C-alpha cells in the first residue's frame, strides 16, 4: 500500500518479487539512504532531502535476495540520469567477449538482430556492430543520445511490455536480446520477462548479465546494495523466475564486471541444448550455502567488522592529520559513505574525471564536494580512498600514471593501504 508520505509511487515491498511469498529473512539494514542522484550543487544551503530505507532481505520460500523498499523509478532514473557505462576497460573487454561468444556459439553475424535493453551509451552494442550484427538499443536516459551520435540506432524509452510490442512491430523480433546490469533493476520483473518474450524470436536467446550474489557475499560487496538494485540474483532464483515463464537457463559464465557478475543464457524451454556450465553453477551455489541461506548468515557479522576496521584505519590516519581524497563517485560509493558515516571532515573531497556530470556537486546526503581530478595531482594528499575499489588495481595504475604520488586505500573487503 502506498502511504501519503511516500513520494510518487515508492513503497515497501511486501511480497517476494519472484514467487509472491510473504516470509522474509532480514539480512542487513544499511540505513536510510538518499537516492544516489541526489546531488545538490556546491554552495547551496542544505534543504530537506528524501531518504529511503535500504534493507537486504531473503525470501524464505524461493531464496531470492532482494531489497525491502521500492523507490519510484522516476526518482531513481530521471531522464537526466548521469551514468555513462562506456568508461572502464573491464566493461569494454567484457562486451567484446560477449559478442565474440555469440558469434562462436550462435553464429551471430550480418543476419542477426541484437537488441540491448538498458543500452546506456551503446557500449555493449558496439562490438556486435563490429561483427556485422544489426543492433538496436532501448534506453530512457540522455545516454541514448550519446549512442545515437555514434550511429547506433536507439529507442529512447523505458522498457516495458508495451515498448517491447512496439519495437517488435517496427523492427521485427530479435535473435539475441541482451540486458547488462539492468535486469536486477527493473520493477515488475514478470512483466519485463513477458516483454522480452514478445520481442524474442521463438528460437532466440536472452542473455542477462547481473551482479552475482555469490561474488557479493564472497568479497563483501555490501556497497552494491542500493535502491536501483532491487534483486540480487543467484542461479537458483533466476531458474525459478524463468520457469514461471516457460523459459530455462541453458548456459552460465562468471565474468569480472562490477566486482563479480554472472552471464546467464536463457531461452524458451526445449529450444537450446543445456550446457554443463548450468549444472556446475547450481552445484557451486549449493556448496557455498546459497540455496539454504547459510552463506547469508555470517555476511552481516563480516560486514559490520569490515565497517569498524575501516573506521579504525581512517581514525588513525586522521589523528596523523593526513588528508584523504575519495576517488570517483559511483553509485556504490553512496552506500559506503552512508553506512560508514563518512563526511567532509573525514575525506576532504571526492574527485571525478573532467566532464563528469557529478562535478561541483555534493555526495548524496553529505557536504563532501565532488571536484575535478586535477586537484588530486596539484595538492597530492597523503591518501586516496578508492570508492570503486572493485577495480582498485586498474584505477591505482591510472592515477599513478597521471601523477599521483600518495598512497591508496581500498576500503573493502578488508580495508588495506597500498
Ligand atoms: Zn520468493
Task: Describe the protein in words.
With 418 residues, this protein is of the alpha/beta class. A seven-stranded mixed sheet has the order 8-7-6-9-10-13-12. It has a six-stranded mixed sheet with strand order 16-15-14-17-18-19. The chain is globular and about 65 Å long. It has 14 helices and 19 strands. The longest helix is centred in the C-terminal third of the chain and has 21 residues, at 299-319. Bound molecules: zinc ion. Zinc ion binds next to loops.
Concise synopsis of the structure shown:
With 418 residues, this protein is α/β, with parallel strands linked by helices. The chain has helices at residues 73-76, 89-106, 125-130, 143-149, 161-171, 189-199, 213-218, 235-243, 276-288, 294-297, 299-319, 331-340, 374-379, 392-401, and strands spanning 11-12, 24-33, 52-59, 65-67, 69-70, 113-117, 134-138, 154-155, 174-180, 200-211, 231-232, 247-255, 261-268, 324-327, 349-352, 370-372, 383-386, 407-410, 416-417.
Strand order in the largest sheet = 8-7-6-9-10-13-12
Largest sheet: 7 strands, mixed
The count of β-strands is: 19
Measure the end-to-end span.
Answer: 49 Å
| pLDDT < 50 stretches | none
Q: What is the percent of helical residues?
A: 25-40%
Structural class designation = alpha/beta
- Say which molecules are bound, naming each kind only once: zinc ion
Strand content: 15-25%
Q: Give the mean pLDDT.
A: 93
Rg computed from alpha carbons, rounded to a whole number of angstroms: 21 Å
Overall spatial form:
globular
Number of helical regions = 14
Amino acid at each position: 500500500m502506498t502511504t501519503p508520505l511516500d513520494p510518487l509511487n515508492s513503497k515497501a515491498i511486501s511480497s517476494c518479487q519472484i514467487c509472491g511469498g510473504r516470509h522474509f529473512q532480514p539480512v542487513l539494514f544499511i540505513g536510510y539512504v538518499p537516492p544516489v542522484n541526489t546531488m545538490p550543487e556546491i554552495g547551496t544551503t542544505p534543504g530537506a532531502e528524501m531518504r529511503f530505507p535500504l534493507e537486504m532481505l531473503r525470501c524464505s520460500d524461493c531464496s531470492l535476495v532482494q531489497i525491502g523498499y521500492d523507490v519510484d523509478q522516476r526518482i531513481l532514473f530521471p531522464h537526466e540520469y548521469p551514468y555513462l557505462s562506456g568508461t572502464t576497460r573491464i566493461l569494454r573487454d567484457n562486451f567484446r567477449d560477449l559478442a565474440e561468444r555469440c558469434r562462436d556459439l550462435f553464429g551471430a553475424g550480418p543476419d542477426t538482430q541484437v537488441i540491448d535493453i538498458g543500452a546506456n551509451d551503446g557500449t555493449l552494442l558496439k562490438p556486435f556492430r563490429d561483427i556485422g550484427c544489426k543492433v538496436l538499443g532501448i534506453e530512457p536516459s540522455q545516454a541514448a543520445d550519446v549512442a545515437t551520435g555514434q550511429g547506433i540506432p536507439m529507442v529512447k524509452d523505458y522498457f516495458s511490455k508495451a515498448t517491447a510490442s512496439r519495437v517488435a512491430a517496427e523492427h521485427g523480433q530479435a535473435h539475441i536480446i541482451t540486458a547488462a546490469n539492468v535486469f536486477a533493476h527493473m520493477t515488475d520483473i514478470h512483466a519485463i520477462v513477458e516483454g522480452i518474450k514478445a520481442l524474442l524470436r521463438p528460437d532466440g536467446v536472452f542473455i542477462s548479465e547481473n551482479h552475482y550474489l555469490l561474488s557479493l557475499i564472497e568479497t563483501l560487496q555490501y556497497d552494491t546494495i542500493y535502491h536501483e538494485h532491487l534483486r540480487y540474483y543467484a542461479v537458483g532464483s533466476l531458474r525459478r523466475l524463468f520457469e514461471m515463464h516457460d523459459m530455462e537457463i541453458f548456459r552460465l559464465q562468471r565474468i569480472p564486471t562490477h566486482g563479480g557478475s554472472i552471464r546467464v543464457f536463457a531461452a524458451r524451454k526445449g529450444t537450446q541444448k543445456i550446457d554443463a556450465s548450468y549444472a556446475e553453477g547450481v552445484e557451486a551455489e549449493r556448496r557455498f550455502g546459497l540455496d539454504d541461506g547459510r552463506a547469508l548468515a555470517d555476511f552481516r557479522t563480516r560486514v559490520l567488522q569490515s565497517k569498524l576496521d575501516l573506521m579504525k584505519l581512517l581514525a588513525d590516519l586522521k589523528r596523523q592529520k593526513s588528508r584523504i581524497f575519495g576517488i570517483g563517485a559511483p553509485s556504490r560509493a553512496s552506500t559506503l559513505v552512508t553506512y560508514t558515516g563518512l563526511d567532509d571532515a573525514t575525506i576532504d573531497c571526492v574527485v571525478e574525471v573532467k566532464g563528469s556530470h557529478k562535478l561541483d556537486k555534493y555526495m548524496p546526503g553529505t557536504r563532501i564536494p565532488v571536484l575535478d581530478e586535477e586537484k588530486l595531482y596539484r595538492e597530492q594528499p597523503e591518501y586516496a580512498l578508492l570508492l570503486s575499489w572493485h577495480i582498485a588495481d586498474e584505477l591505482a595504475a591510472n592515477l599513478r600514471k597521471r601523477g599521483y604520488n600518495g598512497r591508496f586505500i581500498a576500503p573493502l573487503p578488508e580495508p588495506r593501504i597500498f
